[in-house]
Amino acid sequence: MNITYNERTRSFAIETEHTGYYIGIVDEENFVGHIHYGKKLGTEDELPALLRIYEMPKVPSQNNRDRLSFYDSFPFEYPTGGIGDFRESCLNVENSLGQSAAQLRYVSHEIRRGKPPLKGLPATWGSEDDSMTLFLHCTDSVLNLEVTLFYSIFKGIDAVARSVYIKNSGTEAVTLSKAYSSCLDMDNRNFDFISLHGSWARERHIDRTPLFHGRLAAASLRGETSHQQQNFCALAARNADYDAGEVYGQCLVYSGNFLAQAELNQFDSVRLVTGIHSEGFRWHLAPGEDFTTPEAVLVYAADGLNGMAHSFHDLWRSHLIRGTYRDSMRPILINNWEATYFDFDTDKLLAIAREARKDGIEMLVMDDGWFGHRSNDESSLGDWFVNESKIKGGLKYLVDEVNKLGMKFGIWFEPEMISPDSELYKKHPDWALAVRNRTAGLCRCQYVLDLSRPEICDYVFARVADILHGANIAYVKWDMNRQLADLGSAVLPPERAGELYHRYVLGLYSLQDRLLKEFPSLLLENCSGGGARYDAAMLYYSPQIWCSDDTDAIERLEIQEGTALVYPLSSMGAHVSVCPNHACGRVTPFRTRGYVALAGTFGYELDITKLTAQERELIPEQIALYKKHNELIRTGDYYRLASARENRDYDAWEVLAKDGLQALVTLVQVLNHPNFHSRSLRLRGLVEGTRYRVQIEDSLGSKRDAGIWTGRTLCNAGLLLPRLWGDFQSQLIYLSRCE
How far is the CA of 45 from the CAs of 2, 520, 630, in angstroms? Predict the structure, then answer.
């Protein structure tokens, strides 16, 4: 890990353990150009030539007649709009006359150990011992705009974190109509564009499309990350797969509208950008005011998608997730949602808790329906007062009774929303987002609170904090069940109306930050109708996020494959639920449901009092597996071995300990076929000369010792696994070093 500047070549080298990111300053106008990102390069003398400044159209000082041609082909580190670069810009600025143009020039830089926080925004963090940051200061002398590009790297992790600070140092106001976080210009190397798409109950499915001349993008205009798109994308060489080939990953640490885009131009150059989506965004900068973009993280891997995933996982686990539960086992919970929906009371919850405790479950979570007069999803959001006709004896009594069983207690909130049928809406109808003289649209029979207003955030925090202070609550599930629309605030002046989307997200961050400061030992799990706000920014506040409302084990295979491409298994909220599954009606073996949920935070989403005796007997067995393997799953390297999405046959993944001496492999047979031999499953990352004992159990209840094998054989030839009788069957394989 090192960042250096060479005065003679006017170049920066930002180098991690295996990768290098190189920047050059060219011409007397001090243009900031991108030289290379990927494997490390040779001597610094070689760097300037890679910018092609000796080719036509050359630099403006040598060929001013073709300045626009230079702008339209130079690999800018942070391109600006309105000057003649007709590719996607990252910064568009309007002056007081409404004219849009900006041009940045390098003025100075600083290289410091450590990493500064971003004002009001979640971001990766680091100490002086494990991180370094380049501050690259630029200016637009016409607008008197100061722009600082931040680049941070981390010890032992092949990732670069980028963000941008913009300050109006002039005497007139300007307006930012676009302010992205990152740009990467490079030659096309036969790239595919990889994104994660979906909808409710089928989030983050992998999509892979060859680049074409034009633009490919993933985006959200829903005010949140969304079920439909993820604020991640990657460029992968056409021959790249999970195990080999070049991959460039890009992930935005943000929870609102975003754009992640790749553009292939007429010179076969690719521009990869990400940031807050420019549609619906306008930020007024009065003299002296500033703006900070969310952080973008870039990852380069020469060893395929698994290699990219390792860098993202390590970075999030070591430099993003915080708090008590970052490095510890999470309590095994049972949530009453699919067990009871809104039809519950104190007696029913205590009945579930008593039975759950017998089998080793450690926490009861009370989901939606405990407040106001809420008996369905059409009322009471905003009225965060306990409904004591349902929660008889009050919340403290219920929590105390659960605690007496030796269990923790958790509770569900949807703090960002307000129901038209609520006391809060009767008092403060102007607190809901709405456009003047228009009737706001309902979704799930609810409106959205205007979190851009501090007084509304104060109210929400006070109500949630009052509930948490009133009882011994260890866990909060923070939900958000609709998108943002009718973007109007009752208080923002016209020149700041375009700031509402982003100010809403900043209000959300401030709320969750206050909550964790007030309750530092709280386990927070974010949720948005399932996985609509599964993003890196939320991991800054909650170590786990509800992955999807679809808990069917087979549907979860594709959801969790896409999620694990970017996010660690320890962050994925995953539960065992009943069959037929409530989302799709599928029936799968109880053990298979457990094996799939094991690749996440693990818990139960069912009425335990209605399970069969055979299913009840399996719960202690599953809990024992969770406790045995949790540290490995939480800290190990994830490898995708096979994808049912691709082969339509079976799914398999491996988690390997950092020292390579133990591993857990899961195989789920989606469809069985007659007259086939055993499967040969080639493992990854094992120490070649080490001998491993292989133990296998399966969803049919069989357990066996499969002998002792060398890592070399298991990786190069594979482990032979018999096909199981029936669809949706599964196998769990544990490897441990033989002494």
Answer: 18, 51, 49
Mean pLDDT on 319-333: 96
How many Cα atoms within 13 Å fall on the side-chain side of residue 556? Answer: 31
- Find the angle CA(326)-CA(224)-CA(567) to the nearest 5 degrees: 35
How distant, in Å, are the alpha carbons of 245, 305, 408 from that of 302?
A: 5, 9, 45
> Phi and psi for 190 in degrees, rounded to 5?
60, 50
One-letter-per-residue 3-state SS of 136-151? EEEEECCCCEEEEEEE
**Separation of alpha carbons 386 and 370, rounded Å:** 6
Q: Which among 76, 65, 63, 69 is positioned nearest to 104, based on CA atoms?
A: 76
Amino acid, res. 38: G
Distances (CA, A) of 168 to 82, 149, 179: 18, 15, 14
CB 419 within 8 A of CB 432: no
Phi/psi for 31 (5° steps) reads -70, 140
User: Which tens digit of pLDDT belongs to each residue from 84-138?
Assistant: 999 999 999 999 999 999 999 999 999 999 999 999 999 999 999 999 999 999 9
Q: Position of tokens 């890196």?
A: 536
| Residue in the block written with tokens 């909650």 | 542
In contact, 435 and 488? CB cutoff 8 Å = yes
DSSP state letter for 121: B
**Cα-flanking dihedrals φ and ψ of residue 133, to 5°?**
-140, 135
pLDDT tens digits for range 390-419: 999 999 999 999 999 999 999 999 999 999
DSSP letters, 506-545, are HHHHHHHHHHHHHSTT-EEEE-BTTBTT-SHHHHTT-SEE
Q: Catalytic residue positions?
A: 479, 549
